[in-house]
Amino acid sequence: MKDMILKGAVHKYGSNVNTDEIIPARYLNTTEPSVLAKYCMEDIDKNFIKKVKKGDIIVAENNFGCGSSREHAPIAIKAAGVSAVIANSFARIFFRNSINIGLPILESPEAVIAIKNGDKVEINLNKGIIKNLTRKEEYKSQPFPEFMQKIIKTGGLLGYIKGR
């Protein structure tokens, strides 16, 4: 399988970013990704949606996506244009929901420590290599197994199942 490479600027956050901060409950009257995207990260970073560009990457510390099990959170992140999330750790249900909708998430404590807000980063999902293009550094993450790469490449679990 051809290497899946993602590239973007970093938006960095701390620990315990919960699903209410990712997409506030007051906007959960829709599941339309483009509508959810407009309010992504609103309660933790009012200017996020103005700053984020297609392909950008979120880097956070511990327990990203904690809180309720709503699938709206990774949908909002992906629809806002974010190509991946890197953190020390993720809430388990957020991890599963992210993969199910085709949003790559990587655990890499060394990357989280070294990467700063605004850095340009390149991720090779097949090899689990994160390159900080700004600082000329490289970090490791667990590479995605081939079946998960296919899920991500087809836009999520439904696309993967339809393609089989």
Quick overview:
Helices cover 32% and strands 19% of the residues.
Q: Nearest-angstrom radius of gyration?
A: 15 Å
Number of strands: 7
> What is the overall shape?
globular
* Mean pLDDT over all positions: 95
Tally the helices: 8
SSE pattern: EHHHEHEHEHEEEHH
**Helical proportion, percent range:** 25-40%
Low-confidence stretches: none
Oligomer state equals single chain
Strand order of the largest sheet: 4-3-2-1-5-6-7
What is the element layout, followed by pairings?
Layout: E1 5-12, H1 19-22, H2 33-38, H3 48-51, E2 57-59, H4 72-79, E3 84-87, H5 92-101, E4 105-107, H6 109-114, E5 120-124, E6 129-132, E7 137-140, H7 146-153, H8 157-162
Parallel strand pairs: 1-2, 2-3, 3-4
Antiparallel strand pairs: 1-5, 5-6, 6-7
Helix pairs in contact: 4-5
Keywords:
single chain, 164 residues, alpha/beta, 7-stranded mixed sheet, globular
Give structural notes:
The chain has 164 residues and is an alpha/beta fold. 32% of the residues lie in helices and 19% in strands. The protein contains eight helices and seven strands; from the N terminus they run E-H-H-H-E-H-E-H-E-H-E-E-E-H-H. A seven-stranded mixed β-sheet has the order 4-3-2-1-5-6-7. Helix 4 (72-79) crosses helix 5. It starts with a strand and ends with a helix. The model has no long low-confidence stretch (mean pLDDT 95).
